[in-house]
Write a structure and sequence with these properties.
Shape: globular
Radius of gyration: 24 Å
Distance between the termini: 44 Å
Structural class: alpha/beta
Helix content: 25-40%
Strand content: 25-35%
Length: about 450
Amino acid sequence: HVPEDAPSGKYTSQFTISSDQGVIQTFPIEIEVLPFNLDQSRLTYSIYYNGYADKWTYVPYTYTTKTPAQYKLEMQDLKDHGVLYPTTYQILNNLDLDLQIRQEVGLPNDKLFTVSLSTGNPQSSSALNDLKAQVSQWKDKIAQYGYKELYVYGIDEAQGDQLTSQRPAWQAVHDAGAKMFVAGYNFYIDYVGDLLDVAVIQGDLNKSLADKWHAKGNKIYSYSNPQCGQENPELYRRNYGLSLWKNGYDGAMDYAYQKFYTSEWNDFDNSRYREETFTYVTSDGILKTIEWEGFREGVDDVRYISTLLNKIDAMKKAGKDVSELEAWVNSIDPSQNLDDVRSQIIDKILSISSTSTTDVNANSNAAPKDYELAQNYPNPFNPSTSIKYSIPQNSMVSLKVYDILGKEVASLVNEQKSAGSYEVNFNANSLSAGMYIYELKAGNFTQTKKMMLIK
């Protein structure tokens, strides 16, 4: 795990195995740190996370009750693996601590998936009104932590009459201003496709099915392809990485981060299920598995392609011809060697970075003495403006634009820069009029300024 502020370049060292009798084997190591940061995945990565913070009861080695410290460790581990939207099983009355810890870790708060609040299939007006009241209480609670959208769970893997009997409840959830998600099967599109905002569909990926969900205006996630716990890291990398993206899925929500059916330490002591788990809990830490690391590699593959796609979009907005790049992206075959595919994506990103005219280097002969972020000009602006900044030494530079609620709307610079002064052109043609904030990060320096878009 390379520190985010590590300068780009190649690092060499060696790994030595030794015993009391001396050195057994020495292996050379070379690590290349690339001159750009990865953007976040365009896909949503969630997981069925059964744990919840419990500061009153301590039961060691469980997948459910967690001390606040353990809960925080696991939230950080999820974030480190690119899983930014784990479900919550916490009840409403005790939800504050969980949300506080998620906030401390830095998980996003644009949406929250709760399995604790499940609709069932109520039919009477009074029962449906009770459900609406519960949804409103949940929405009020999570709004205190900045959450924008609440996703409520249906009946897990329902079939037949049980599936369709949920329609009044799902409509009630919509009427109360929340959304629906649940795990199920391919045929759900024909029975609840109009009401299921996120369909978590088991089994093989199916592009035509993804197209059908999108035609309904809804999203499709993947699970049980396979379930968590199989000792095959490449399988998770392939099925939950570029294959997921290539088939048009919006995300993944596999089962489960931890789930123990009998003993925590024996995957095969249950007559019906093997354990479905990516990690194992200890009294004060986490034991991670090779399949969990394989899943992370899949997420990272999607982050690489997301970074490339974002650069292509920026070039397109700047009026550049990107047809050749888009054709290459469309030709990507996730069934090929994934290391080779990733290397090719990296080459494309580097080739764009080396020829990019998104920012104009206005460097003078002498390097600037200080970090500086200038006020954009013109300001107010419509629809484009220029932002100048200076860095006194080689730095990893991030220049991003946020709306007034803190949502990122543009990433203008995200790469290693030499000492100098720069000017970036920002076109806000696709944005609404209003106040925006732009932020420069370079090394340990951070500065923000406001600008006004008028239309």
